[in-house]
Amino acid sequence: MKNIRLIVVLASALPALLAAQPSLTIYNQNFAVVRDQVPLDLQPGENTVTYSGVTAQMEPDSVVLRDPTEKVALKILDQSYRADTLSQGYLLSLNEGKTLDFIVRDKDAKEFIVKGKVIRSGYNPDGSNEQPIIEVNDQLRFSLPGEPEFPTLGDDTILKPALTWRLATETAAKLNAEISYITNGLTWQSAYNLVAPEKGDSIDFVGWVTMTNNSGKTFDGAMVKLMAGNVNKIQPAAPMYARAGRAMGGAMYNATDMMAPVVTEQAFDEYHLYTLTRPVTLHDRETKQVEFVRSGNVTAQKIYVYDGADTSNYGGMSSVSIRSTPDYGTQSNKRVWVMREFKNSKDNGLGIPLPAGRVRFYRQDDADGSIQFVGENKIEHTPQDEVVRMYTGDAFDIVGERTRTDYQLNNRGSTMTESFQIKLRNHKTEPVEVRVVEHLYRWVNWDITAKSDDFTKKDAQTAEFRVTLKPDEEKVITYTVVYNWQ
Length: 486
Description:
The chain is 4% helix and 51% strand. The chain has three helices and 31 strands. A hairpin with a 5-residue loop joins strand 25 and strand 26.
């Protein structure tokens, strides 16, 4: 398969135009930092300025308003934030105690007017609305008799969430100020699709970024950055200022690629920052996907793992309890896991920090070219050059069986000897290698004194045997382990 990598070419744009666009840094913890411009035409003394470009979920005390050129000193005397935008419920609340016309339509769609007095609108700014109470012909009803008609919007209504400032300045100034603030209601996550051929380990690897906007505002042509990592944040949040520091960055594409990347990546503090290289429009209540990585030349080996000790009925046991419970680890399961393993390196067609996300596995059917879903899992934030191993399901034609054949504890209780027999059966039409994982769970001081096959010590309490089975072959692994508490 040919290496395709990143797609979508960034259209050329003047730096001045890019500077005028709103920009977002979205965190995968349901909040974002918004940056935009506010045109100001200030006179000496106090000025009242209203800006209606904020979200409905902003944190007002996170606002930073400044002159990016640092030529004009802006002093905010006070700031007001309103998010009670115009709605039917809000207008009903403004008309409590008044009589309104309600349009009623009969079954023939003919309209007629019913007069009703608004006793209670039912509207609450926090969203915990109640049933309205309307008086019609001296009778109360807990519903609207029809569609209300309002004589006026009222003097205190707003159409969009808005900030109002009283600004003080010593001299007249006309400038494009910069506003930055934190808002809830914006988040992102990544997802990956892996498509493997019916035979072989070379897969297609596609990564998506999904952005969700429930902030109450549409961002038109915004420059978007995505922060990966768990940032400590409390409510309410303190003002966020830009962090100083040097960053080393790299584009998510190969140097030989002719197409510009759709996403670039850089290290930022203890996190990773991904930048979309073209403007994005995010409508309110919209979910949008952007493909950020594509490679058709990733080697992802399929491996079979048999971890035969079933300890699911012994949860939460201490190490002392484990070594003093003779039956611990003697339960056996027959399932052999199917896993995919690949290295996140440039030599393997990747080599970029991969954000945490869901991974879906597909396998191509060579008979008709269709792809079938064969499992899914999740990966954590994965740095460059790390190995990723994911469970995708259980093997259908490979079976394992684990039996303890001997158990001895000396009189002083300082030495324990256990022997196990592990049977593997391959019912496939091709040979397979199975990695048999044995956990030496009794204690850290152990020694395998007898074995039928070589093993690798993976860590302080794990041994791995690798066994190759021919079609329809059964193999038996045996070993004896001695634990010592002296």
